[in-house]
Design brief:
The chain has 356 residues and is of the alpha/beta class. Helix content is 49%, strand content 15%. The termini are far apart.
């Protein structure tokens, strides 16, 4: 016996249109990545209207490929097109998002993360079927450079100018000379930014991913702060024998297999009057509070990156990237912290302060 289902044709067509838009975005993501990696956006930035031949000459690419790529960008609304002159132009506002790699608004570098998700799809499928984890270091290398560049831009724009001043008395300690730990430091952008801003302080960055630590050391040397910054392969547990005025967790606590244990180690390693700064995605307590593009990106990344890594470290119920402040506060309360507050926030991040 078959059951007939009444189909709302208008609803079907609307949803099919929505999914086709997502499909177009997947295709367009490849075009954006190509434009970033080949310097096509950089060739257009600030140059005014250009023909396809001129863009090809400026970028050192083949004109016929460039012309088709340009047309894909016009169709996407990324680039303006003057049909009468057959010229293409990248608006300054779009250049800040696509061409300027140092811009806090830049998003082109983040397409490396999306590429890594596709490249690691078989790992994700295996994890879904078996319940096994996928460690951070087991992902494709494009993940690491994409995450480092994307978060590095956000930290460059906000860490020193907004986030640290929002903490109680921390800037004054850093100016006088403090000891700082950066847990889950990755490529070390956050650590180096603080070291550049506060030359009287000393910094230690720890991360389980050896390749990222090597990149962080190179980054510190390039910035000229390697005399005051040390990067080591390790976890929060490696901080226990030291004493720190500030311990930072930048967008990493939710990735850990045992976040309570990490918070306990931070509690042990804090100097008297010390502070923990926790930066996490700005998520609400329930799914219904996290709808829209930001929630979609974070839940998707959390599925195959954050939860997968936490499970690889033994987590039975990972926090996930959308943990929300209530669950994060509970972690630190269980670890023995008595003071907790939301220091500041933005569209993407919560900056939370914990003290003994």
């Amino acid at each position: 016996m078959t059951t007939s289902i009444d189909i709302d044709t208008a609803k079907l067509e609307a949803f099919a249109g929505q999914v086709f838009g997502d499909l177009a975005a997947c295709y367009g993501g490849v075009m954006t990545s190509i434009g970033d990696r080949l310097g096509l956006y950089a060739s257009l930035a600030g140059a005014g209207p250009l023909t396809a031949v001129e863009v090809a000459d400026r970028s050192g690419c083949h004109e016929r490929y460039v012309r088709e790529w340009l047309n894909s960008q016009v169709a996407a609304g990324y680039i303006d097109y003057d049909a009468s002159a057959a010229k293409y132009e990248l608006p300054a506002e779009h250049a800040a998002v696509l061409a300027d790699r140092d811009s806090p608004a830049n998003l082109s570098v983040a397409f490396n993360v999306a590429a890594s998700l596709w490249l690691d799809e078989e790992r994700a499928i295996h994890a879904f079927r078996t319940g096994e984890g996928v460690a951070w270091g087991d992902h494709h290398e494009r993940l690491f450079c994409g995450v480092a560049a994307f978060f590095g831009n956000a930290y460059r724009a906000q860490l020193v100018s907004q986030w640290l001043p929002a903490l109680d008395g921390v800037v004054e300690k850093l100016e006088a000379g403090a000891t700082v730990a950066d847990v889950g430091c990755g490529h070390g952008h956050s650590t180096v930014l603080m070291a550049e801003a506060f030359p009287n302080s000393r910094f230690v960055g720890v991360d389980t991913h050896e390749a990222s630590i090597l990149a962080a050391r190179a980054h510190a040397a390039e910035a000229g702060v390697d005399d005051r910054v040390t990067f080591v392969v390790g976890t929060a547990a490696d901080l226990a024998e030291s004493s720190f005025d500030l311990i930072c967790f930048f967008d990493c606590l939710h990735d850990l297999g045992d976040p309570v244990a990490a918070a306990v180690q931070a509690h042990k390693a804090l100097a008297d009057g010390g502070t923990v700064m926790l930066v996490e995605p700005n998520a609400g307590a329930g799914v219904e509070e996290n709808l829209g593009p930001i929630g979609r990106v974070y839940y998707s990344a959390s599925t195959v990156l954050c939860c997968a890594h936490a499970i690889s470290e033994g987590a039975a119920e990972p926090l996930g990237a959308q943990a929300g402040e209530e669950r994060l506060a509970a972690v630190f309360a269980e670890a023995g912290f008595s003071q907790w507050r939301r220091a500041t926030e933005g569209p993407f991040n919560l900056v939370l302060e914990a003290r003994r």
